[in-house]
Specification:
This protein is mainly beta and 263 residues long. It has helices spanning 2-8, 10-32, and strands at residues 55-57, 62-64, 69-72, 77-80, 90-93, 98-101, 110-115, 122-123, 128-131, 139-150, 153-164, 173-178, 189-195, 204-211, 216-221, 225-231, 236-244, 254-259. It binds 2-acetamido-2-deoxy-beta-D-glucopyranose (6 copies). One 2-acetamido-2-deoxy-beta-D-glucopyranose (NAG) binds at residues 162-164, 247. It comes from Candidula unifasciata.
């Protein structure tokens, strides 16, 4: 019945045509009205939709990337914030300081470094930042913080790098004492050699000793006294002392010489 009436009623046909036209037009418009990044949007206006995956942030009435994403103006796409994590940070320990570096590209970001609970927060300058006045031979965790504004929000991205400072240079020899005299065919004696400790957490020392002739010897020690070293009296010996930290990084080397007392 209704079909019959429609077929015969020219006015209805024209109306239906218009209706169809409007529906199509609306769809076309809403497709065109997909708002680009940064464009104004309004949630109550159904014709004004942000271009997916952009979402309308109602605080600002602006089409922005979803949470945990940022807008990369180069690719013109929303990218994961994980991409912003600093991957190319290197930190090395000196005796009293830690020096961290970033690639040149990263240094344009607002990036800082601190270690453990130290109050020093050092900004990177030309890709490098140095935290001074640290303890020698110590394990630190450097926290690199990048602060930037993404999508109208302040974002903080952090990375951590573990680093050991070098132990301080060990001190000089403080005593060489003849201990038990023992007759040997080489006319040698037992000596105790004591040196000054490094500042800092030393895992072990390597003490090397030689004379101008063929004699050379090496000791690994946790203490600062090496007992019962077989040396000749009245002879000049050259030594070197190196301290190693818990990650087996060496200090600067202390070198010197001493002469054993004559018989
Ligand atoms: C959003 O749309 C509503 C209804 O059209 C309007 O009253 C309101 O002013 C709009 N807000 C903005 C920020 O455009
Ligand atoms: C720094 O933090 C690390 C990890 O928490 C810890 O193992 C280390 O001992 C700390 N170093 C200092 C000097 O506090
Ligand atoms: C310790 O040394 C190893 C090998 O050299 C290195 O891979 C590691 O990163 C070091 N750890 C720290 C905390 O410096
Ligand atoms: C010194 O380093 C060792 C690892 O070599 C660690 O076990 C110890 O806790 C450190 N001591 C201090 C006082 O930092
Ligand atoms: C520590 O370093 C020294 C010298 O570089 C090396 O001879 C030694 O094998 C290292 N020890 C460990 C445990 O890596
Ligand atoms: C070590 O001490 C001796 C004598 O005390 C001195 O002659 C020598 O210069 C010192 N060496 C260093 C490296 O300080």
């Amino acid at each position: 019945m209704a079909t019959e009436r429609f077929k015969n009623d020219k006015r209805l046909q024209v109306l239906a045509l218009f209706a169809l036209y409007y529906v199509l037009l609306n769809q076309l418009q809403s497709a065109n009205a997909e708002i680009q990044h940064g464009g104004t949007c309004n949630s109550t206006d159904s014709g004004n939709v942000c271009k997916p995956p952009l979402v309308c942030k109602l605080e600002f009435n602006v089409c922005l990337c979803p949470v945990t994403q940022y807008y990369d103006s180069r690719t013109q796409k929303c990218e994961s914030e994980n991409n912003l994590k600093r991957k190319n940070i290197k930190c090395r320990g000196e005796t009293d300081s830690v020096i961290c570096s970033l690639s040149q590209d990263d240094s344009i970001l607002n990036t800082y470094v601190s270690v453990n609970s130290s109050s020093q927060v050092i900004p990177f300058s030309q890709g490098q930042a140095e935290i001074k006045h640290l303890s020698p031979g110590t394990y630190y965790v450097a926290t690199i913080t990048s602060k930037f504004v993404i999508e109208f929000y302040n974002k903080i991205i952090t990375s951590t790098v573990a680093v050991w400072t070098k132990p301080d240079k060990p001190g000089n020899i403080s005593s060489v004492r003849k201990t038990k005299v023992q007759e040997t065919s080489l006319e040698s004696y037992w000596y105790d050699i004591t040196f000054e400790a490094s500042r800092g957490n030393v895992s072990y020392y390597i003490f090397m000793i030689k004379n101008t002739k063929e004699y050379t010897n090496s000791f690994e020690t946790k203490k600062t006294t090496i007992s019962n070293v077989l040396l000749k009296p009245g002879t000049t010996y050259f030594f070197s002392i190196t301290a190693y930290n818990g990650n087996n990084t060496s200090s600067d080397v202390t070198e010197g010489s001493f002469k054993t007392n004559a018989e």
